[in-house]
Every structure is written in structure tokens, then in C-alpha cells.
Amino acid sequence: MTSNRRTFAIISHPDAGKTTLTEKLLLTGGAIHLAGEVKARGQARRARSDWMKIEQQRGISVTSSVMTFEKDGTVFNLLDTPGHEDFSEDTYRTLTAVDSAVMVIDAAKGIEPQTRKLFEVCRLRSVPIITFVNKVDREGRSLFEILDEVADALALDVSPQSAPLGMGGLFTGVLDFASDTVAKPEGGSKEYLGSREPLGELPGDMAEEIELVREGYPAFDLEAYRSGDLTPVFFGSALKNFGVEELIAAIDRWAPPPRPQPSDDGPVSPERDEVTGFIFKVQANMDPNHRDRIAFMRQVSGTFKRGMKLTPSGLGKPIAVHSPILFFAQDREIADTAEAGDIIGIPNHGTLRVGDTLSESNKVRFTGLPNFAPEILRRIALKDPTKTKQLRKALDDLSEEGVIQVFYPEFGAQWIVGVVGQLQLDVLVSRLEAEYKVGAMLEPAPFATARWIKGSEAALKQFTDFNRANLATDRDGDPVFLAKSGWDVNYQVEKNPDLTFSATKER
Known about the structure:
Layout: E1 5-12, H1 18-28, E2 40-41, E3 44-45, H2 53-58, E4 65-71, E5 74-80, H3 88-95, E6 100-106, H4 113-124, E7 129-134, H5 143-154, E8 157-160, E9 162-165, E10 173-176, E11 181-186, E12 191-198, H6 204-216, H7 222-226, E13 230-235, H8 244-254, E14 276-284, E15 293-301, E16 304-305, E17 309-312, E18 319-320, E19 325-328, E20 331-334, E21 337-338, E22 343-347, E23 357-359, E24 370-372, E25 376-382, H9 388-401, E26 405-409, E27 416-419, H10 422-436, E28 440-444, E29 449-454, H11 457-467, E30 471-473, E31 479-483, H12 486-495, E32 500-502, E33 504-506
Helix pairs in contact: 3-4
């Protein structure tokens, strides 16, 4: 049975309230029992999905976490994505594993750059979006300004499903259009504690505003939403727990069940009997005490049973999956079965990589999980030269996770790491020290970007003979051209028409 699965991501700009909303969704879904429980772990007050040391220090999410919970017979698989702009590559891969998304917008700030970027990724894959306008209990933009900005900036029809009655100091509650009831604040804290009242008479200006919101925008259309052309809009406060129940009910009612996934042989339906899935993330050392390594698989079809043998496309021989994991608000449980749409963690020792397809027949290859050309390249230098072996192991692990890319130059002993954004370099140094006990420094590299090169053996040999100083291999042994500038790339493209210089590499 696949129809009761809802696999979705939360996307937002940093500080829009995504982590708080995640907590309240888990609270509403019964995955945790006390508000704040997700943030209270040991001495560190942080979201339970934010487990990495650098995340604790900076208060940001730099990895993608999975949290599963069940409510009223529906299984929700929530994928929390990094909000920081430097982590768009990891976020992109996470968004390949979801069927819908919740877009969180700060009522005062509106559409911010990272929100727009993530939205475009969703649009590329026709991922339907529910919008949650957060922090309406604070001073913010007018109702119409917010709705019109979403419509204009993202070229979407907007269909408001609720509205705040006043904002900031004038905030008196959130009106739910479907039930015509108002969620009211309790006491001076403006916390919502479950009090709902029928909509009474509103002051003249407010009544007129609410009427215009209800009548002036399109009615909700399920087909338009699921095709990515319309977004239902909910208003609330994650911190004060306004609007969260309505949001989770909308995900249950409207968000699509598991969708077909693209493969090299056409879309694979969730109804297919064969168990298939793809690895969209690998995470090492989630529990530093056990040096574990978990591959996250989005199940695409079939009914998985514990102990089943699946063949990874990168390995070619079957592996028995004895200890598959489901993630319940960061608590782990062994999964005896899993259905299409579920995310299961597969412990392994380096056999599974991002982009691998797993299947019973080994005849399916899912597509659409690329590597991106790095925008920053750095040489890596050891503080202790005797730790070369440990560094190689660490770089292999982290490149398999997709945190970095590693290039091995034809000339020169120093390896080069490539990243999409600066923060990834900070994460690299932090994790080398914390998880692998390897002290390393990053030094400038004479290159600005990289391109994967393909062509005939003769064309590649001719290019290699003339450009050896600019050549490297990636961890798969594929040839890479390290360019000093964009002009350098364009020059080589024109000069070598028999070769392709690609800014992405399908995994």
C-alpha cells in the first residue's frame, strides 16, 4: 500500500523558522511529546536534526535529515534540508527524493534569495509546494503584499487557506477558511494552546480585508497544485504553534502519494512489484562512537522486507540488507518492511554511494542525481604528514557523502578539493578534526573551476598530451580538466570540438 505515504521536504531561507516548524510538525504528529524536546539534548540546545558539531556551534543546518512519523493512519517522511545557500548541491539531491515540499517564508522578509533558488529546483522537477507564511505574530508585511509577492516572484497562482487577524502587536489569531474558526492566543504569551472559536464579527477594515483575500484569489485546485502551478498558502507561527495543525492536515489531504521516478528506461511506477530505490545521501559518523556509515535510500517501488537481497548499480553484485533503519525524530528503529515513498537507512562500509540504484533485478537505473562543477577549489595540506592514509580515507568518505569532490592532479602531490560554497570548506576542516582526528589546512589552488571531459580515446590522448598540467582524475578515475577561469573553459571548448566539457556528471 503506497497511498498513505507523504514524503516531503521543508525548504526556506536561513532563519525563516524551518527548524522550529519541523519540531512542531513532529510534536503535532506525536513523534515527540514536549515542545522543546527536539532542542534539548545534553547541554546543547539545538534541533535534534542538527547533530553535527559545526551545526551546534553556528545554529544552522548543513546536512539533510530524515524524520518519519505517523498520524491518523498516514506515514509522513519529512526530509529536512540545509537552508544555507552553500549547500544547494546536497539540497538538490534531497529534493530528488521527495514528492512535495513546504516552503517557509518569513512574514516580514518575504521571498528571499535561497527560497527562490530552492523553489526553482522544485519547479525543475514539478514538485508541488504548500506555502507557510511564518512569524505572523510579529510585525510583518501586509497580507496582500505577501500573497502578491509569492504570485509574482515565483509565477504561481496563490490560494490562501487562512489569514492572520492583525499582525505584530495587533495579532489576535489565525482564521481558518475551511472551518471558519479562529485559533486564538492564550494569555499574554500569544501561545496557541488549542483554543478555537467560531468567527465572530470583525472590525470594518479587517472584515473587508478578509473578504478580499477570500474572494480575490483562485480557489484551491488539486490538479493545479499537484502539477506545480498553484500553491495553497497558510499563515501561522511555528514558534507559537499557530497554523501547524492545518498545515499537516493539508499535507495529508492534498500532497501526492509516491510519484513515478525517472529512469533510463522510462518512469518507474510505485506500483511496480520489484523493489527498487536510489541512494540520494550518504552520511558517515552520525554516531561518532560507532563510526557508522548510513546510505539513505528513497524506495521507489515494491514492498521491501528485511534481509532482502538488492543489487547496487555501482557494485554489480547483490547485498543482503539485514539492518535497514527507519528514522523516527532521530531515534532509529530496524525496519522489517518498507513501502514505496519510504526512506530507509542502509548501514554499509563504503559499498553504497550517492546516485546508486538498488533493485532486485539490477536492470533499472534511476537518473537525475548529478554532481555539479565546483565553484571553489583548494589544495589540502596535512599538519601531520604521517596521516596521509587517514586523510585519504576521510576524503573518500566525505566525497561519497557529496560534501566535497576530490581531484587527484596528474602533476603535484597535493590533492585538490572542490565545493559549491565556502561553508562546505569549513565543514570539511571541522569534520576532519572531529571525526577523523586529522588536522589539515586549505591553501589556494591555481584553478577556478573543473569540467568533466569525454570523447574518443584519440581525442582524449591528444588533449592530455598538451594539457597535462591542468588535468586530474576524480575518485572514479574519470578525467577532469581544471580550469583557471571561465575564459579558459571556453577556449578549450572551441579548440577541442571532438570533446565535451561538462559542468555536471550524472552519478
